[in-house]
Amino acid sequence: MIKFLKIMLSEFDHFKRSPFKIFSLLFYTMAIIYGCQNGYTLYKKHNLEINNIKTKISDSQSKMIKTFDDIESGSIKKPRRDPTTPYWALRNTSTYSFKYPSKLMVFSIGQAEQYGYYKYITNWSTVFDEDLAHEIANPERLAIGTIDFNFIFLYLTPILLIILLFNIGGLEKDLKFENLILLNDISKNWWIFTRFSFYYVLNSILIICCLLFYVFHLEFDQANFNYFLNLFFIICIYLLCWFAIFYTINIFGNGSLDQSIKMVSIWLIFCIVIPGSIHQASSIKYPTNYMLDYLNVSREKSNEIFSLSSDSLNKKLMNSYKFLKSSKHAKDSIVSKSIINRSVSAIINDLNKNVNYQIESKNEKKNKFINSFNIFNPVTFCQNKINKIAETDYYSYQKYRFQIQTKIDDQINMILLDTWNKIKINKKKYLQYIDELK
Amino acid sequence: MIDIIINEWTKFLRNPVFVYLNVFFMFSLIFVVYLGILQNNSQETNRKIVEDEVREQWDNLEPMNPHSAAHYGSYAFKPMNLLNGLDGGVNDITGNVIKLEGHVQNEILFSEASQSLSISKFGKLKSSLLLQIIIPLIIIFLGYSSIINDKKTGVLKLLVVEGLTLRKIIFGKSLSIWLYGLLLLFLTIIIQILSMSNFESLNRLILLIISYSLYYYILAGLAVYFSSIFKNNTTSLSIVMCLWIVWTIFIPKLWGNTVEKVYPLPSRQVFKDSMKEERSKGIDGHNPFDKRRDILKEKFLNQYNVDSLSQLPLNFDGIVMQADEEYGNQIWDKYFGKNYYILEKQKKLFQISGIVNPFSSLQSLSMGFAGTDMMHHLDFLKSAEDYRRYFIKELNDQHAFGGSKTGDWKWTVDSLYFRSVKKYDYKSAKIFDKINYYSLDVICLLLWFVAVNSLIFFINRKKNIL
């Protein structure tokens, strides 16, 4: 143990005397802070935007409440789009669905810039509407990518390690005095292992200190802290893997230069070539989906539905929504065209849901294909694990899409139920709608 | 000079490891280029199938009112440029489909990046990845020790005694390494040419060759230069590698973030709200109580000298719809114009980083000349919007002047008319029409070329030989 500590201390002395290594470590630290700060800025931006929209929602709802007051007091005529009908009352609830950013987004922006995080919901909405596309941004900047902690850690940590470790055991070989080490009664492997341990500890402490600053600054609750512990576990394992690879290279290396070239080649293979190959292979096997099925529903099939007679639509609606059979309108002998017109969105929504299922299944196949290479592609595997923890991965946004669909369904069910039961909407009922769609 | 180059190549070829690795790399390169072409073709075939199906639906529409047809709309599918297989640029990030319809200008949707888990942060394994990242690394590995080894073995002194100048030796060695990079570049381009059939792509490939050649020369020159000024290989390699990392990884991302902060774009919410508010000040085609509609009505009644809309020899509804569109178009031009202006300013500011980072210039030129950068993307968006305007005007004119009367919403046109509406056919912009966007990148690369040559030209002979 004492020998272990002595070697660690001597490695510290060696490190202190290498301005290039110190500079690299400082540069790396700055990059981590910059990456976290980028994540923090995006986290704040998302929250700010959501709060702005909430203010807008509240203003719009207040205006609507005033309109109800005015209608009820008789001071204004009903507007063209009559809010006392369930259809227009619900259209005026200013319903939004938000994807609140996780505090762990600070550590991984992931795919957050590729999706929308707020969505205006009506009975005509779908989960592939244009307001769910990513924020207005420079596409070249998006293509080049953002520096976040996830990127720095996964792609640049190995480079830092190359700088810190390439001459361990190699310098001695370069200067041909490696056999002198054996005179100290230690094995070469143990000696290299101890020197590596110093950098492992140094790196881990450095990373955890940088991250802990944001953990305390953002006041993580227990749940987020547990996620943070998961993140830290991944960090330790990932670091360990690279140390193991570089340790093997140094054990069998033929000098600093030979070791550094091998290390750089391994980095290239794991960080660029393998992910790039899988990316290309997945594109060939599963080309970009032009969403023809979705386009067909939003145009061709919707058009077919619109051209159906009210009787046919009435039957279709009653078949799909059994609860309508006990409604007031169902008991009428004449089918009301206006009630049917206000209910058509339910049939379109059903078609959209079927298509969504197919699209999600296709995407899932592609994801399964990508994941099937995880064993050869540890960098992408870890990248997606960290994105998942930060709730910035594909599945977090899929979950958000499901949440949106639920809200669309809720709104449609309310329209159907109250329209078919010929309910007149007043202020109280409107407030009830707002509450239910929150 | 030629002797130095021949000598260097003889040295390369004498090393069996180098030869085997090269053969392997060249085959890999051919395979990667082939895969890029394959991916591009499969994507393009898919696009054509979808485009044809959507057009067929349009051609076979049931009789319909022209305004309903405007709501039915059309779609523009972003075509894949032939050189997308070489450099995908922004294509994975941007969407691929825009709905073109009346009253609204939609955004492009369904990007490839949003359809799966995140994979590579450096993009697909396409030719551009090899040409921009791997080949420069090979150039670095070939160059970082070239002079140092000659210094150690005394060959350098021998060459100087024989009458060669250090400058000539560095130029010779740089050229020999550069030629190697050029060989790999030509290999890529030749395979790409085999899959091409148009002259425009050839022009683009020539410009790509020039850009990559300049960058490879800059790298080869610097690697050999550092090898001549440092005493050991480790220092030389460390410095060139650091430069490569900073150039390839840090500066593009760092500067990319910075330009968005210097020239910020509005958030979608603010953008849409402002557009909506301004649009509400114009005619609302679907609101019969709109005051501006009444003004237009009066104008038409006076023009035709009649008392009521029913007496007009045209359908006033179509006129209102077109007036609504034209007002909307002005708003689109104003707001999207502003965004495009900001994006162009961002692009220019990004290009300035080429002064300290030739890789940024290369990356920008590679995307630009491959026709996959932001400028080409904006060109597609503008063309789709132009088509939308033609498409909707055509339908509104048919609505107004096709023979129906005001208020007759049941009047329909048949598929014969729908077939007469021109199909959307986007041709990618010609590179020489867009070349001015890339002048800054070209200037930066040329400046670097001059700077590297100057470094070599003014090298301190004695200090570096000893």
How would you explain this protein's 3D organization?
The complex is a heterodimer of chains A (438) and B (466). By secondary structure, chain A is mostly helical. Chain A has a domain at 2-24 and 148-285. Chain A is built from 17 helices and 2 strands. Chain A has helices at 2-16, 19-73, 86-91, 139-144, 149-165, 170-174, 178-182, 188-217, 222-252, 256-285, 292-306, 310-320, 328-331, 337-371, 378-389, 394-420, 427-436; strands at residues 95-98, 118-121. In chain A, strands 1-2 form a two-stranded antiparallel sheet. The termini of chain A are far apart. Helices cover 70% and strands 2% of the residues of chain B. The mean pLDDT of chain B is 89. The chains are: A mainly alpha (438), B mainly alpha (466). At the A-B interface, helix 2, helix 4, helix 5, helix 10 and helix 11 of A face helix 2, helix 4, helix 9, helix 10 and helix 12 of B.
Secondary-structure blueprint:
The complex is a heterodimer of chains A (438) and B (466).
Chain A: H1 2-16, H2 19-73, H3 86-91, E1 95-98, E2 118-121, H4 139-144, H5 149-165, H6 170-174, H7 178-182, H8 188-217, H9 222-252, H10 256-285, H11 292-306, H12 310-320, H13 328-331, H14 337-371, H15 378-389, H16 394-420, H17 427-436
Antiparallel strand pairs in A: 1-2
Helix pairs in contact in A: 1-8, 2-5, 2-8, 2-17, 5-9, 5-10, 5-15, 8-9, 9-15, 11-14, 12-14, 14-16
Chain B: H1 2-14, H2 16-59, H3 66-72, E1 74-77, E2 97-100, H4 127-143, H5 146-153, H6 155-161, H7 166-194, H8 199-229, H9 233-262, H10 268-279, H11 291-304, H12 316-352, H13 358-370, H14 374-401, H15 415-420, H16 431-434, H17 439-457, H18 461-465
Antiparallel strand pairs in B: 1-2
Helix pairs in contact in B: 1-7, 2-7, 3-14, 4-7, 4-8, 4-9, 5-8, 7-8, 8-9, 8-13, 8-17, 9-12, 10-12, 12-14, 13-17
